[in-house]
Amino acid sequence: MNSEMIFEMKKINSSEYKEILQVWESSVRATHDFLKEKDIESLIPLVKIGIREVENIVVVKDNDMIKAFMGIEKDKIEMLFIKDEYRGYGIGKKLMTYAIDKYNIKYVDVNEQNKKAVGFYTHLGFKEFDRSEIDGQGNPFPILHMKLI
Q1: How many of the other CB atoms lie within 10 Å of CB of 110?
Q2: How far apart are CA 122 and CA 149, in angstroms?
Q3: Are 132 and 149 in contact (CB under 8 A)?
Q4: Backbone angles phi, psi at 128, to 5 degrees
């Protein structure tokens, strides 16, 4: 991987939707082992809407390919996904540092069953302050609401 990763704040254009969805799907399949295939398929239309509607999108590009992306609304991370083969290179930490420094991020929601993500956010100083038994789609996947302390 090139050491010159580019962080770019932008609105996603229509030609990038497919690439963003590939990043999302790669990340979800690698980290959300509690989801069944039908769950993943049912989320795709919602992800497409979310990408279009989120206030700010930050993409990480390397060799002109999107490796990761993050969606920000006000002071909250709404989404952060890293293509599976690029996990473990510090991209997530760099994205979070960027979001905290530039956008004063304070909040993130994370699936409780995604233990690596919970550990990642905890390591960065986020603490659970609330918990929902169901996710935003009404599915029985508990959500931890975390705040940067």
Answers
A1: 23
A2: 10
A3: no
A4: -65, 130
> Using an 8 Å Cβ cutoff, are 63 and 2 in contact?
yes
**Amino acid sitting at position 50:** G
CATH assignment at residue 34: 3.40.630.30
Per residue of the chain (149 residues), give pLDDT as tens: 555 677 776 667 777 888 999 999 999 999 999 999 999 999 999 998 888 888 888 888 888 889 999 999 999 999 999 999 999 999 999 999 999 999 999 999 999 999 999 999 999 999 999 999 999 889 899 999 999 99
Q: Is residue 31 situated within a structural domain?
A: yes
Q: What is the domain count for the chain?
A: 1
Task: Give the span between the Cα atoms of 120 and 23, in whole angstroms.
Answer: 19
What is this structure's pTM? 0.89
The string of DSSP codes covering 58-109 is EEEEETTEEEEEEEEETTEEEEEEE-GGGTTSSHHHHHHHHHHHHH---EEE
Residue 1 lies in a domain: no
